[in-house]
Amino acid sequence: MSTPGSPDNDQPESIPLVEPAGGTPPVVTQPAELRRAAAALAAGHGPVAVDTERASGYRYSQRAYLVQLRRAGAGTVLVDPVALNDEVDPLIEALAGTEWVLHAASQDLPCLAELGMRPSKLFDTELAGRLAGFDRVALGTLVERVLGYRLEKGHGAADWSRRPLPREWLNYAALDVELLVELRDALETELAEQGKLDWALQEFDALRDAPTPEPRKEPWRRTSGIHRARGARALAFVRALWEVRDSIARERDVAPGRVLPDSAIVDAAVAAPIDEAGLVKLPVFRGRAQRRLAGTWARALKTAAQLPRNELPDPSPQQDGPPPPNRWADKDPAAAARLSAARASLSALAESLRLPVENMVQPDLIRRICWNPPADIDVDGTSAALRAGSAREWQVGLVAELLSKALHATPSE
């Protein structure tokens, strides 16, 4: 097995894996087929490799358009939940109580949950790779470095809502679960040898039990390039166009950027054309597709232009949490000193443990504690603050004492 951080040129030549050992199975599209596949999975043994394919960048929804599963004794199963009208109860029953192995589970768990599929136990190979100290943790990279096989890749960003799915895409999808359990076993061994297995298990449980994130209060503020829209009125233009675009994208089930790019929204907000004729002179809006919607965009801009001042968005909304760290020295020198000391000690510890510092403890939690320390900044008080911020016990045990010392830091004269 490749050791974490070892140079790639020390690796033996990898073996290309261009198709699954048992061939690419047909896609399950009928209830009777699903019941047979579920029975085979239930009769298998050991963990179940699970993956999904979505149509990000093409569709508004983040639903699963294909679910891939593999278990020893059962082989690989490819399920089309769309064809099954998302009725996958036999699959849910077959997987009850099993350990699921996913790579980058946070990307797949939400769309699986939409199908009613939730793991009883979880092993995330990407997260395991990070904790084990591997510098690159993409699935193909880990499989090559740890197991010595080179996966056929290249269709992850495809439009998986397309039907029928091309054979080469299905081959790619099946390969994503072909060696996932073997990778899991190798990484478990590596973590155990490093004394990190319990840390990983705590992380997997936290990931499995993580609550669904609350929707953002003002999602339009994440429009790419919005910093160019200066002033409340320009921001109102961004908001108006973003909200109309979102409504159209949701109705059509099309990715918002395919309805209107963020760059075009910001261009219109900056230029602030007074009518439809002015709008269609702008790049993107002069295109044939946008001309059909020009009246819609122009009406949104007109409505925003007529808003009274008290209905305009705040150019500097109150942030949930501390200000950006680059402002701390001016706003609160003592907090800046605490954060500087914490970052230095935590970075050194993370390096010694071959851990990404962000996996050792959430940087946002450290910033919040340094900005607003607990009343008691001894180890017990600091531990309580970490737990209140959802730090796991292994994290508390590692960083509480170092963070407590950092909270005693004062600005240098």
Automatic annotation (TrEMBL):
Protein's name in the database: Ribonuclease D
Composition-biased stretches (Pro residues): 314-326
InterPro entries associated with the record: 3'-5'_exonuclease_dom (IPR002562), Exo_C (IPR041605), HRDC-like_sf (IPR010997), HRDC_dom (IPR002121), HRDC_dom_sf (IPR044876), RNase_D-like (IPR051086), RNaseH-like_sf (IPR012337), RNaseH_sf (IPR036397)
Residue span of region Disordered: 1-28, 306-332
Single GO MF annotation: ribonuclease D activity
Source domain of life: Bacteria
EC annotation from Swiss-Prot or TrEMBL: 3.1.13.5
EC class of the enzyme, as a word: hydrolase
Alphabetical UniProt keywords: Hydrolase
SUPFAM superfamilies: HRDC-like, Ribonuclease H-like
PANTHER family xrefs: RIBONUCLEASE D
Taxonomic classification: Bacteria, Bacillati, Actinomycetota, Actinomycetes, Pseudonocardiales
Xref: Gene3D superfamilies: HRDC domain (1.10.150.80), Ribonuclease H-like superfamily/Ribonuclease H (3.30.420.10)
All residue ranges annotated as the HRDC domain in the record: 231-311
